[in-house]
């Protein structure tokens, strides 16, 4: 195939060149009817390019096959057998993958550090999760991806499980030993799904961690908007091998996806693929060189430490992506929550992941000396301002064993069954009926169907008081927790 083509982008350009007009959705008619105040902020071009995929960019029969051509080009560019575009984010791609490999029945081996979208797939499907123990880091208080040894143990315990599901890279940029895990799964004739939402760029530079498809995964889900150049909600799920039915995978995605896909999201994925084939290695080489310098400059600042080698020491992660600049602010006497809030409020800098002692800045090929100097200057100012910030409330971080709560009920049954709200101090020993997720990074601390313990409740309550964001529980303050109702005598 000609990787210099971008069929979706070219079809959209042709749509404008032919001056097509549709008496169809969207009703704004390429911005003609949009509120001028919205146009003033958003600009005219987003409205102009917001047209239908079928009976718009393509005809009513989709005979131009622009989307399928773009997907074929993507698969060839990265060495997958098939690629499917999604405009509903990797959250949809994850759910579709889970349904396709399990057929909505039985057990699924899952790393307990999975994203909340994975839990949503478990709840919707009614599957029984069999949680694979991550490599808990007692010193750093983070979860590294599960080791091959832990995956092997779980296959021995649950040999009839449908597949294994691993998150790699994690939101911290740390990676699993996918090649060994894939060998373990394939020796049993079982597929391996990798949630590689943070790894869209990995196929395009050999200094980055190994891409999941190259390591032998059967399905790999990537978020183009995270480390690629796509719009928010842009996602791709790649497929190879004969352990997953491609038609079922496509049909499962169709069950969950929108029938009103945004052409701009598709076209941005298409354009990014062409850019990476043509220039990706050079762009990423520049980004990695810049990241090396930024990491070194930050680590030299008094009171700040950039995590590096400790992420890949023995009993930790197999590899990590240096574009994730994970900064420990603990020596400044402040929390990561305070640091993130101060940077936004006073220096107009936003960071991603933040927790009780860290913030994370993710660099991409878009960054340069100017953007990173803004970050470095803001961090120097933070160091000077830290002494004036109040002492942060202490977060009661649990021991690793306390984070491994027992699943005693199917997540779907706990979520959809009779529930009641109880005071947090009475929740220990009860079965959770909701998920409670510090966000970012989006890994649930409590899942429906798990027996709650006091240590995790203390962690969430103290975290909420210290600035932790909990977007999904009924009570974000965690003064009360939604639990499975006690059975009443009839």
Output mean pLDDT.
94
Major sheet characteristics: 7 strands, mixed
Helix content: 25-40%
Residue fraction in strands: 5-15%
Helical run tally: 16
Would you identify the regions where 5 or more consecutive residues have pLDDT less than 50? none
Q: How big is the Rg?
A: 23 Å
Question: Would you write up a description of this structure?
Answer:
The protein has 490 residues and is an alpha/beta fold. 38% of the residues lie in helices and 13% in strands. It contains 16 helices and 16 strands. The strands form five sheets. It has a seven-stranded mixed beta sheet with strand order 1-10-9-8-6-2-3, with helices on both faces. The protein has a three-stranded antiparallel beta sheet with strand order 11-13-14. α1 crosses α11 (263-299) and α5 packs across α6 (116-125). The chain starts with 6 loop residues before the first helix and ends in a 6-residue tail after the last strand. The mean pLDDT is 94.
Could you list some keywords that capture this structure?
38% helix, three-stranded antiparallel sheet, alpha/beta, seven-stranded mixed sheet, 13% strand, 490 residues, 16 helices
Secondary-structure topology with pairs:
Elements: H1 7-17, H2 36-42, H3 44-48, H4 66-78, E1 82-86, H5 89-102, E2 107-111, H6 116-125, E3 128-132, E4 135-137, E5 142-144, H7 148-157, E6 164-167, E7 174-175, H8 178-186, E8 192-195, E9 219-223, H9 224-227, E10 235-239, H10 246-256, H11 263-299, E11 305-306, E12 319-320, E13 324-328, H12 336-347, E14 358-362, H13 369-386, H14 400-403, H15 411-416, E15 419-423, H16 454-466, E16 480-484
Parallel strand pairs: 2-3, 2-6, 6-8, 8-9
Antiparallel strand pairs: 1-10, 4-5, 7-12, 9-10, 11-13, 13-14, 15-16
Helix pairs in contact: 1-11, 4-11, 5-6, 5-10, 7-8, 11-13, 12-13
């Amino acid at each position: 195939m000609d990787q210099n083509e971008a069929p979706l982008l070219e079809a959209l350009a042709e749509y404008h060149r032919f001056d097509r007009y549709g008496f169809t959705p969207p009703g704004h008619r390429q911005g003609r009817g949009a509120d001028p105040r919205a146009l003033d902020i958003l600009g005219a071009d987003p409205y102009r390019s917001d047209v239908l995929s079928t009976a718009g960019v393509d005809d009513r029969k989709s005979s131009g096959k622009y989307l399928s051509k773009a997907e074929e080009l993507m698969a060839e560019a990265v060495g997958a057998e098939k690629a499917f575009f999604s405009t509903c984010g990797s959250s949809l791609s994850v759910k579709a993958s889970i349904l396709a490999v399990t057929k909505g029945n039985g057990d699924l081996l899952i790393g307990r550090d999975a994203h909340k979208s994975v839990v949503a797939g478990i709840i919707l499907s009614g599957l029984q999760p069999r949680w694979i123990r991550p490599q808990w880091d007692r010193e750093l208080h983070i979860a590294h991806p599960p080791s091959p040894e832990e995956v092997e143990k779980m296959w021995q315990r649950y040999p009839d499980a449908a597949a294994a599901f691993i998150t790699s890279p994690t939101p911290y940029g740390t990676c699993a030993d996918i090649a060994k895990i894939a060998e373990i799964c394939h020796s049993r004739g079982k597929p391996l799904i990798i949630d590689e939402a943070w790894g869209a760029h990995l196929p395009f530079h050999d200094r980055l961690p190994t891409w999941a498809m190259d390591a032998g995964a059967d399905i790999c889900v990537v978020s183009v908007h995270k480390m690629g150049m796509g719009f928010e909600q842009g996602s791709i799920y790649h497929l190879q091998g004969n352990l997953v039915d491609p038609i079922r995978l496509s049909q499962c995605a169709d069950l969950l996806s929108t029938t009103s896909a945004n052409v701009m999201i598709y076209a941005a994925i298409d354009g990014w693929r062409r850019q990476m084939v043509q220039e990706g290695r050079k762009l990423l080489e520049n980004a990695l060189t810049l990241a090396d310098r930024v990491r070194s400059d930050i680590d030299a600042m008094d009171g700040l430490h950039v995590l590096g080698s400790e992420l890949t020491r023995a009993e930790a992660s197999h590899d990590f992506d240096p574009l994730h600049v994970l900064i420990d602010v603990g020596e400044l006497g402040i929390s990561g929550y305070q640091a993130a809030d101060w940077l936004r409020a006073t220096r107009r800098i936003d960071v991603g992941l933040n927790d009780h002692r860290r913030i994370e800045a993710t660099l991409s090929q878009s960054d340069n000396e100017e953007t990173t100097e803004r970050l470095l200057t803001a961090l120097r100012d933070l160091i000077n301002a830290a002494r004036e910030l109040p002492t942060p409330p202490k977060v009661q971080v649990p021991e690793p064993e306390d984070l491994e709560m027992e699943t005693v009920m199917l997540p779907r049954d706990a979520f959809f069954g009779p529930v009641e709200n109880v005071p947090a101090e009475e929740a220990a020993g009860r079965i959770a009926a909701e998920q409670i997720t510090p966000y970012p990074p989006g890994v649930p601390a409590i899942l429906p169907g798990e027996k709650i313990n006091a240590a995790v409740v203390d962690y969430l309550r103290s975290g909420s008081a210290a600035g932790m964001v909990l977007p999904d529980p009924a009570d974000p303050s965690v003064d009360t927790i939604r639990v499975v109702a006690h059975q009443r005598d009839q």
